[in-house]
Write a structure and sequence with these properties.
By secondary structure, the protein is α+β, with helices and mostly antiparallel strands. Helix content is 28%, strand content 19%. It is globular, with a radius of gyration of 14 Å.
Amino acid sequence: MRDGVDPGAEAPPLIWDEGTLAAARDATPLRGALPMIRSLLTDPVAGSGHVVAVGDDRGRLLWVEGDAGLRSRAEGIGFLPGASWSESDAGTNAPGTALTLDAPSADLRLGALSGPGATVELHRGPDPRSALWAGYSESWM
């Protein structure tokens, strides 16, 4: 274990319970943008092997939406609301690397969470405390 991250872990930590997640969702400036995010990014690709995640600047997932089959598989490795995908909590991974570098990132995660074709595009709005992560892959996981 290095820097508190277990390299053999099958999923990052789930750090928020339902109440804390609800409060974080209420507080994020991206909450008001969800209808637009859904209409432009999520709804048009339903069933196409894509997911869109909205999180904060510390790698904590607030919403994960998109293809139901891919979301279900993603939940199996801890890619779900309330989980922390920061590099300090989950090790090297696409969302954590994108946030650390403040740039889009290919999925660098090894071991149980790897998969060809997984990428993350990081988009920041005017409020740096929030981030929109658009993840694309039919072959992820």
